[in-house]
Amino acid sequence: MSAMKTHRQLPRWKTIKPLLGWHLPRFDGVDKKLLRCITIQDLRELSTQRVPKAVYDYVDGGANEEISLSRARETFSRVEFRPRVLRDVNEVDLGTTILGKHSNLPIIFAPTGYTRMMHHSGEIGIATVATSHNLVYSLSTMGTTSAQELGVALPNSRKWFQLYVWRDREQTKAFVKQAKDAGFEALILTVDTPVAGQRNRDIRNGLTVPPKINTKTFFNMATKVKWCFNVLTTPPLEFATFRQFTKPLSEIAATFFDPGVTFDDVSWLKTIWGGPIIVKGIQSVEDAKILAKIGVDAIVLSNHGGRQLDCGVVPLELLPEVVAAVGKKMEIYLDGGIMSGKDVLAAIGLGADAVLIGRAYLYGAMAGGMAGVDRSIHILTQEMKTTMQLTGVTSIKDFTSEYVRIRN
Ligand SMILES: Cc1cc2nc3c(=O)[nH]c(=O)nc-3n(C[C@H](O)[C@H](O)[C@H](O)COP(=O)(O)O)c2cc1C
């Protein structure tokens, strides 16, 4: 066979240029590194460049050997979608109803303490982004912004207040009243924290309450110049809830958590709050059943993102059993290790009404403040939409266990 002669020409810039993603440098203040983040993992990596190691570790870390957290991630990696094809998936509706109101996504911002340390825009900045997407924001009792401040800043947003029952029940009552006065819609009672978990990274970095920052941590902080500048030129980092107290933080710390809290306290809270109650940190079917009897509005299957008990139950594995037992009596949410839109859908498919995300938005905040949080919601939204289209499902309510299972 005679060899075919290839016609050659000189490379032409006109054909090469459109293939290259190069642009002239932009000086418009747009954070290009942030725009290059296409996964939550990318935001996680970018955040290591932008905040001191101790801050990153505080967010990224878990208790003891961090096995709860790594098992949650490992379980998400075993999720298997079972797609149906030849369906019209032009339009996909990611919206759902959470406690009787529409939410654009089945995603709730989890309560996370000390948020202004991650980025100076803090709770108000992050809640502003949540509100712009019509999502619920939960304010932690351990926040750097008080319930009253958030209420004034965002009077018309959907916001829940996360509470620990304190040893001093009168003080607990006062927090409940502050949340009510500030226009919070629901109370999240966190119950997986009778005592503080042992977070080894924080202890090593000296990020304890009160802080005992060592020299290494101190000098590492100094290397993140922009972060330092922002911390030093904005109001001091503090637990906003404790501002009114005159005692030193070391003494207050001893009263944060009450190891004596029981189901009776949940019933008591119901009477003093008078609105929706969500109990967060449920890790057994039995406890879920008791709370259904008490008549709470929702529970969160959660091990605090692996920050409390290590080697705890994996919430995603527990979910189907809890849904079967109490799913008709109250809403069931899940959190821990959600890093993608696929993870959100796995939980929804296995019966959750919604999920809470913690680190997924905090990585965004550390990487780029409010724009970073917005980026994390954008990433999750796009991933959810594509996964639903490829699975052949067009609405959240139809994304059932028919489409998802966990491989053994
Ligand atoms: C930095 C950080 C601080 C947290 N602070 C609180 C808190 O004050 N109260 C609470 O109930 N949960 C707290 N959590 C747990 C979250 O509400 C949520 O359960 C957890 O982050 C979910 O796991 P994920 O981060 O992997 O999404 C915190 C989590 C993180 C990462």
UniProtKB/TrEMBL annotation:
Pfam families: FMN_dh
GO MF annotation: an example: FMN binding
Keyword annotations of the record: Flavoprotein, FMN, Oxidoreductase
FMN hydroxy acid dehydrogenase domain ranges (all copies): 32-408
InterPro entries in UniProt: Aldolase_TIM, Alpha-hydoxy_acid_DH_FMN, FMN-dep_DH, FMN_HAD, FMN_hydac_DH_AS
Cofactor: FMN
Family recorded in the similarity comment: Belongs to the FMN-dependent alpha-hydroxy acid dehydrogenase family.
Name of the protein in its database record: Unannotated protein
